[in-house]
Every structure is written in structure tokens, then in C-alpha cells.
Amino acid sequence: MEVKERFIKKYKEGCMPWAHEKPDINLVTTVQKHPVKACKALEIGCGTGTDAVWLAGQGFRITALDVSEIAIGLARQQAKQAGVRCRFHVADFLNDKIDGAPFRFIFDRGFFHTFDKLFQRKAFAEKVASVLSDGGLWLSLIGSADDPPRKRGEGPPQRSALDIVKATEHRFEILSLSTSLFGSDQPQPARNWVCLMRKR
Ligand SMILES: C[S@@+](CC[C@H](N)C(=O)[O-])C[C@H]1O[C@@H](n2cnc3c(N)ncnc32)[C@H](O)[C@@H]1O
Q: Whole-angstrom Cα distance, residue 37 to residue 32?
């Protein structure tokens, strides 16, 4: 089963352990610390929309997409409740035309890391580069291989720093790659990589 089909099925089953009520702290601190100025931005694989809604609240003109209709329905409800404007679309990031490109800032939490093979992660990085302005930034939150090994489905996929660098460095300058924990509602959040990149 393809990655996107796996996720569509999970949402239908109501299984979405990655969903979180508060914006991921790694996004919040990177945007505030770097700082990433409010701009035209895209979240890919936005799920139920918590982080896109936070970005909209910070003044970002945000488009957010997900392949799951259920996820986008929930995301639209969150934006309505928060009273912010986000453009949410049901779209397949890898195969569909992305309306509104190019963007100055792209964010993904747990989407890039779903691809097991280097060629898939490279293709993903190429697609990100194709919808990012020159010099634009990509922030990716990625499950870390430094946690004890997990079986598939028992938590976020686990990637090494080398997995990330090999797939992205030809198209992106890696500005920072640091180890952290997912900002999460779970009692024991998984370790992650916080990777901020600039398009070459
Ligand atoms: C691990 S979830 C993370 C969701 C959200 N970013 C969060 O942290 O709550 C990965 C997301 O990527 C979405 N996804 C998978 N393949 C996709 C594709 N080809 N195009 C767009 N979204 C996709 C899934 O539906 C899912 O919502």
C-alpha cells in the first residue's frame, strides 16, 4: 500500500496518534528564534491543522494540504473555531499541481519521514524545492533513529541524520539540524530531528 493510501485508511479508522492539540513547540521556537518572518507559507501533510492554524495566527498567509479529506475537514473546523484564515486543500503533494506556489516557507511535521527509501525522500525534497522560492526555508520535523528501535506503526518512523542529509543536501543548505522531542499530547513523546533548510 502506498504511503498516502495508508494514511487515508488510518483517518477512516479514526487512528491518528500524531494529532496534537497545541502547536508543536519545535515549530514555535524555530519560527520565533530563527526568526522566520510571516510570509506566504505552505504546510504539507497538515493533518488536522493545528500547526497551520498557529501559523495563520502569527500572520503567515498559509496554504495547508493533506491527502485525507477527513483530515482537511477537521482542519477547517479548527480554523473556524480559532477565527483564522487558512486555505486548506485536499491534495496529493507528490503528484498534484500545488496552487499558490512558490512559497517562502514550507513546514512538514512527520511527512518527509514516512518514506523508507532514499530515492523517495530525494523525490520528496525535489518536490519541496520546486514549490519553494529561491532562498526559501523548509522546516521538517522528523522521527529520530536515536530512540530505541520501534516496529512500524508503533510510533514515528526513525531516520538518521545521514538519511536526512543524503536526501536533501544537493537542493538545500542545512542551516540547523538538532535533536529534540516531538511537541505532542503523548506522555512520552518520541525523539525527533528539527531540520531547517534553505533552498540553494
Ligand atoms: C504523520 S501524519 C502528520 C500529520 C500532521 N502534520 C501532524 O503532525 O499532526 C502525515 C500526514 O501526511 C499526509 N500525507 C501522506 N501522504 C500524502 C500526500 N501524498 N499528499 C499530502 N498529504 C499526505 C497524511 O494524510 C498525514 O496527515
A: 9
Task: Tell me how far the alpha carbon of residue 95 lies from the centroid of ligand 1, in angstroms.
Answer: 14
- Each residue's pLDDT tens digit, 20-65: 999 999 999 999 988 799 999 999 999 999 999 999 999 999 999 9
What range defines the domain where residue 76 resides? 3-7+23-91+98-188+195-199
Angle between helices 161-168 and 118-130 (to 10 degrees): 50
* Ligand 1 atom index nearest CA of 19: 9
Best probe residue, ligand 1, of 28, 48, 67 (max atoms within 8 Å of C-beta): 67
* CATH number of domain containing 52: 3.40.50.150
Tell me which residue has cell 530505541: 148
- Is it the case that residue 1 has pLDDT exceeding 80? no
- Residue range 112-127, pLDDT digits in tens: 999 999 999 999 999 9
